[in-house]
């Protein structure tokens, strides 16, 4: 439910979101050099495949967003990685559309950047056993912030959309909880198997 | 879970033979015009045009239905709330709630627009090979680094998905059934962690192999696009149809119609 379909938002919201995304993208691309492209591509592909896994939740199943975790691992590179994933999902899965791509990217990339700025530096500071909690925070925060932004863009499109935005907001906390738990497990796993991944992740984008 | 990570829509016929750049541009133009429409009548015509495109591209109804269903969850919330929250002349009363005709029209138009854009996108772009899409975007002026990232990601998605299928099969062989519990979340967390670790080892090998082949930070696109007379014809035809759509919408707005 993080993908807003085409035709819902008003022109100012679409244009504003698009411009903000282009701005973030310009900064991110300038910081990304060609030498790091393969690593970025492989990570974004791994996260794309992971987000296809449907995780059962009560009677339904959910897909993870993993944007908080992307921010943790990729830093600024999460912005183009998220854009690529969303463009592929729009073109081949029918999620979102070409004009809302900017808004959808912004809604997922901004939380990723918040995680990169707030949580990634903490990875290097806390005791290794505590890193699991940072993983949980990244997963939880990523989904909750995205939910807040989706609801906000919807509410900005006009008064009649406010109740729908509120209903939508209610669906996010359970997702955030599952995402936090899974992300915490991923971080715990990496801590045991490849701790260098977390420490380079903590250093590369400050 | 589908067999391939990026499902390929098998299309056929005249649209599928058109230049990828034209198809990407046409999808964008269609979305721009459709989203800008102001009347249910013209929006329904846009949906009709999109259906026509989907039929012309030879898409199977089952594939289309699955993709359209993907957006109906979001739509359901909007369609159920909008008639009651939009002020205007009363349509019907439900207890103390009053639904307005303006809200009904707004919900209807959003439903029509979203479905029309997804249909047109599937017909024009969804039938492209993902790599062809990346190359077309590159030729349409998308920054080089971004198209590089897109093309490499597409390739890696296939490889990593193969790895995922292998790991998942190993879990199934050990009688793993996903449920709503700690055990499932932990197993999936480890699965995703393992995917990451293996794919990063792959990234190292990939970078080494590319350096061996003289990679100096640039990939060269190897496609040679051919713009054919049919492409010009298709572009003109679509422009006429989209123009007619905009004209119809304008005409519906005039008083006395």
UniProtKB/TrEMBL annotation, chain A:
Q: Which organism is it from?
A: Allochromatium humboldtianum
GO cellular component, as recorded = plasma membrane
Q: Does the keyword Ribonucleoprotein apply?
A: no
Q: Name one Pfam family in it.
A: CbiM
Q: Which NCBIfam families match?
A: PRK06265.1-3, PRK06265.1-5
- Where do transmembrane segments lie in this chain? 7-29, 41-66, 73-93, 99-120, 132-157, 169-190
Topological relation to the membrane, as annotated: Multi-pass membrane protein
Q: Which Gene3D superfamilies match?
A: 1.10.1760.20
Q: Where in the cell is it found?
A: Cell membrane
GO terms for biological process, alphabetical: transition metal ion transport
| Record-given protein name | Cobalt transporter CbiM
Underlying gene: cbiM
Automatic annotation (TrEMBL), chain B:
Where does the UniProt annotation place the signal sequence? Answer: none
The record ties this protein, via InterPro entries, to: ABC/ECF_trnsptr_transmembrane, ECF_CbiQ, ECF_transporter_component
Which top-rank group of organisms is this from? Bacteria
Q: Which GO terms describe its biological process?
A: cobalt ion transport
Residue stretches in coiled coil: none
Q: Which UniProt keywords apply?
A: Cell membrane, Membrane, Transmembrane, Transmembrane helix
The subcellular localization recorded is:
Cell membrane
Transmembrane stretches in the record are 43-61, 68-86, 106-125
GO CC annotation, single: ATP-binding cassette (ABC) transporter complex
Query: Principal localization?
Result: membrane
| Protein topology in the membrane | Multi-pass membrane protein
- What NCBIfam families does this protein map onto? ECF_T_CbiQ
Instruction: Please report which protein family the annotation says this sequence is part of.
Output: Belongs to the CbiQ family.
The name this protein goes by in its record: Cobalt ECF transporter T component CbiQ
Q: Which organism is it from?
A: Allochromatium humboldtianum
The encoding gene: cbiQ
């Amino acid at each position: 439910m993080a993908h807003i379909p085409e035709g819902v938002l008003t022109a100012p919201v679409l244009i504003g979101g698009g411009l903000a995304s282009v701005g973030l993208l310009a900064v991110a691309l300038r910081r990304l050099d060609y030498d790091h492209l393969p690593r970025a591509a492989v990570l974004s592909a791994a996260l794309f495949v992971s987000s296809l896994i449907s995780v059962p939740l009560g009677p339904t199943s959910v897909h993870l967003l993993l944007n908080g975790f992307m921010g943790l691992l990729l830093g600024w590179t999460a912005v183009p990685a998220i854009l690529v994933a969303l463009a592929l999902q729009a073109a081949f899965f029918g999620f979102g559309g070409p004009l809302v791509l900017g808004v959808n990217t912004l809604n997922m990339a901004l939380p990723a950047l918040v995680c990169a700025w707030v949580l990634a530096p903490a990875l290097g500071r806390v005791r290794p056993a505590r890193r699991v909690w940072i993983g949980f925070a990244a997963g939880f925060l990523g989904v909750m912030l995205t939910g807040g932004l989706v609801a906000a863009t919807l509410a900005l499109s006009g008064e009649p959309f406010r109740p729908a935005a509120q209903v939508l907001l209610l669906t996010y906390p359970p997702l955030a909880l599952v995402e936090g738990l899974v992300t915490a497990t991923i971080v715990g796993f990496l801590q045991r198997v490849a701790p260098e991944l977390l420490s380079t992740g903590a250093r590369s984008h400050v | 879970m589908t067999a391939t990570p990026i499902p390929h829509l098998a299309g056929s016929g005249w649209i599928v033979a058109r230049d990828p750049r034209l198809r990407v541009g046409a999808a964008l133009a269609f979305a721009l015009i459709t989203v800008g429409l102001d009347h249910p009548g013209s929006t329904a015509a846009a949906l009709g045009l999109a259906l026509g495109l989907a039929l012309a591209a030879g898409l199977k109804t089952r594939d289309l239905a699955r993709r359209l269903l993907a957006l109906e969850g979001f739509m359901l919330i909007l369609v159920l709330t909008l008639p009651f929250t939009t002020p205007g002349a009363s349509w019907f009363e439900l207890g103390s709630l009053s639904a307005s005709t303006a809200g009904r029209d707004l919900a209807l138009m959003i439903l029509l627009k979203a479905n029309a854009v997804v249909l047109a996108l599937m017909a024009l772009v969804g039938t492209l090979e993902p790599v062809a899409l990346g190359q077309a975007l590159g030729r349409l002026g998308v920054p080089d680094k971004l198209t590089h990232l897109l093309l490499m990601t597409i390739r890696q998605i296939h490889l990593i998905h193969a790895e995922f299928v292998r790991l998942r099969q190993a879990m199934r062989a050990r009688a793993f059934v996903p449920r709503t519990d700690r055990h499932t979340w932990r197993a999936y967390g480890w699965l995703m962690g393992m995917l990451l670790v293996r794919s990063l080892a792959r990234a190292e090998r990939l970078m080494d192999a590319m350096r061996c082949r003289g990679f100096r930070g640039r990939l060269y696109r190897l496609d040679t696009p051919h713009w054919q007379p049919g492409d010009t014809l298709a572009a003109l035809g679509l422009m006429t149809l989209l123009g007619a759509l905009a004209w119809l919408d304008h005409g519906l707005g005039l008083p006395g119609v």
